[in-house]
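Q: I'm teaching a short session on how sequence maps to structure, and I want students to see two examples side by side rather than one. Could you give me a first protein with its sequence written out and its structure tokens following it? Keep the formatting plain so it prints cleanly on a handout.
A: Of course. Example one:
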Amino acid sequence: MRTLVLRGIPPDFDSNKHILFSVANFQESEQDYEKYKDHLSVNYTHSVTDNINIGKLTSQYALSLIPEYAKQFNKRYQTSYTVSYWDIILYPWLVTVLQILYDRQLMVRKFISKYRDEPLEVNLLNDKISFAISDTAALQETVQHDPLFNHWLLSRIIEEQIPSNWTANYSNESKSNNYAYVPRKSIKQRVSVFAKRFELLLIGNVSKVYGTNVLERLFFSLVLKMKAPVESQPEKAITDSDFVEELHWDFNAKQIIDRLLPSAKLKLKHVDGYKKAQGKIQIYSNDLYYNMGSKLKAAIHKAQKGLIIPTQHGGYKYGIGYINAVINTIEVKKDFFFSWGLTDETNERVIPLPSPMLSKLLNRHKLMTNRIILVSSIANYYGSRYNSWLPPDYIFDYRNEKRIFINTLDDRYQEALYYKPYPEKRYSLRDITYFRKEYPGLNIVNKTLKKQMLKCHLMVLDHPGTTLAMSMASNTPTVIYFKPQHFPQVGNVKLLFDEFEVLNIYHTSAESVTLFINEHYNRIPEWWSSKPVQQARLKFMDEYARANKRWFSQWVKVIWGL
């Protein structure tokens, strides 16, 4: 009888004795991947259509649960806030939990479907563990990727539907059995948090929009204070009856959801009347996802009949990939949405504006070095928001493409190659460690990428994201490669990348892009400045990376004219 291993690699691993559950088994021993990769049980990657549908389903279900949790939190804090108030605070946490649970459930379903008829022993973790999760940020950044948490969660899902011919073996994790996920902040991070809180008090109406400085945000805030109130559309209250399609759970999901409630005590302010902020506007960046101070501020503002305007803060999921349901709920469907990479002609409240960040980079590239900068992204063992980035089943293949790039780049250009890895996270591939060991002579970019990008000979990206928008805006010579299954695309952007492929901007493999570089390295500036390439670049910017030197006056004009 073989044993299903949900976490780690047994020291005595034998395919006749063990089955590895997923690629996450290599989370604490990635050096063993090549040795044991052929013994993974099943592939859990979903199609783009599946991801979109699952994203919508879990998002709708999260919204349907808000009324219930609104009552619970009102009772806890002795308040009487509306569902719309609690929606701003609770939805980012609740949809994250639901998507984690649903993703792990699909993994278990697929495994059981394949191995139901084989007698197995299953190493489960007992349920005598308590998880103290401080907030949504801890859930997103740490908890969902933690091997211990996932072992515990997978155990709960499996034990309620374990086939009769399987045997469950339970183990204790530690004596304390209590795990607190309260992020430990460095001195630099604490100073940053203090600065953000101070700015929230100083600049009451505008959060840290990407690319803006304190003086610009202060001016926008003054404009908003002087501006006459804006008439807002009546807000439709969320009720249980709005959602007819429920998620089907194979385990007691509600019990798990309740156990993963944020443990941090909320500092609520009571609303004194409802006309204090009526028609007044607040502008936010991505802090409506993770920053509890900002979410509380936005919630009280909405309770006082104020308006909320989120602003775009990234590149990939605003049309370059596909718009997921979480972005739609937290950002796009608010009172207005300022976007530099999303056009919605059917929604007049989606307002296209140049990005302050991209505008400050506009055409700033000036060739000063011979460097080729290879820029990478994060590779997590477990999927996050559905599906916000690289599918876990592809992370080692994704890394291998970088190895192929380095190995096939002509020797003449190896000294010019610099690698910019994503900062290492505890639960992602350790690329800095790996590439330093694999290629001791490889140059590593430790400084800010932006400064290096503006003077390099060529940028090489292995993923479509914000960095692509930055390189296009700055007019930095750029090539991008990725396998279509790694970063699937739908809609108009697929046609644009087809055009990029014809022009050699986009390549579907590392071999293809290195062949292009080896043959054209000395002619890169001429190629990049050619009319077809520049036209394609400007077309991309017009649709997904808007930038303008006069961005500030355009923002003021739009804000004042709302």
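Q: Perfect. Now a second example for contrast.
A: Example two:
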Amino acid sequence: MLNGGSRRRLVGMKPIWLLSFESYMVRKVGGLGEVPPRLARALREKGYEAIVYTPSHGVKLIENVEELYSVNIRGENYRILRYRVNPEHFVIEGGVFKDENVYSGGRLLEKSAVFGLVVSSYLRHVVETGFDKVPIVIHGNDWHSYPALLLSNMLKVEKGLSLKLVYQLHLLSKMKIDLDFFTSVIGVRMHAPITGVEGVKPFEYYFNRAGGWVEKLAYLTVDHYVTVSNGYVKDVEKNLGWETAGRIDYIPNALVWTSKEVFDTVAKHYDVKNPLDPEERKRVRRKILTEDMAGFKGVITEPHVKESLKSLLEHYELDKPKAFDKDGQLVFLSGRLAGQKGLDTLLGSLERIIVENPRVRIVLAYIPVEGSEPLIRKLGEYHWAFNENLRIIIGKMSPEDYMSLYFAADAYLVPSRYEPFGLVAVESVAAGTPVVASFTGGLKDIVVDLRENPEEGVGFLIRPGNRFELAEAVVMLLEIMKNPANQERIRRNCVKRSQEFSWEKSAGKALKIYFS
């Protein structure tokens, strides 16, 4: 932890660049969009000039912007706009970034390449014209930022820069990229010297060692390789290979909202005086389920995905959620609509949960991604089969609606097959709602199991993919939550547990890694 004197001395230090393909302050699709800007803000609070670099993805910024730099790439003009928010963003616009689709639409590799070329061009510019602006750390997030790190690595060797390169893995993609992409598309010479785990070697050497697997190539060619939770470190080591054991660290994700923010929001909308009072929760839940549910509409932000799902959502009546006829205990789930999230496990558990608790109300809020059509069909069929107990919201809701559902729920589910961190679990406990989650990745770092620690527990952990354990745990938790004394104690535990995940702590961990 830095003391006040150290903090003052750090003001004016060379900047830290955080590279991210999305940011909630510009264009957000998933959880990644929350992390770099929040970490950057926490770093700035510690006295560091942390800047987020992100593409515009079709967003037109008008206020608080000024052009910082421009470069022509393959006949297209790209501009870096300084976006004066907290934290400060350098937003890249023009050319391929006029496309509103972030991860869909077939231009992902092209966007990744251009992002790297623009960032590295600007890095060269500041090295040659303004030494005080040269970053001391470039922190790339996920493989989309790796071309920028690789090109920065080449410049680091060429210019002898004192520059730390950090790669943070948020989710293993096992993405393989052809050599031609690096040599022809972003212009890396086969024999270009880059630095890596074995010192300065030709790019071809490290590429062949990685076999084109970009996440392994990143491991071989950065100064620090990190992920997002202690629990996910072992999963990453297992995938990358035995030689990585003990060489991967983590910078934990943290709260998107605090308990106070949730409670203040709910108090404003539902006139809640005591957010931990079971009767207050019951009142809010009843109003949400029997009245407000019809207004909780999701928005699909990716144009390509929106168009491909339009007719399916209408066919299965998933385009307009309806309120329930009656109140009942509420089970909530939200997140990306992807196989990783354990949809098959969840659907396989529904019948038993409903048989054991016929008045249970289950709300699933999914953000679809490209290729979601088969999962939408499956959801639609279950929506028809369990229409009395089940509501499905497709698309991104407002933060206020998310907070309200988290607050009203008796249980929150995260049945993921694997989960690097599990931001939704932290969001849930911050709202005072217990979690049933898979024993995997960051989830096992977040959820304290009530069976092992009844006094401090915040939910249950189950084996990934086990629909029987999921159903049993949900039924058990709902039964426990019927008792007002149990409910109030567990909700207090949840709020207390959420306080362990702060961006101030994450920034402190990041600084230790940056400068070790």
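Q: What should students look for in example two?
A: Point them to this: The mean pLDDT is 94. Also worth mentioning: Residues 120 and 152 are 6 Å apart (CA to CA).
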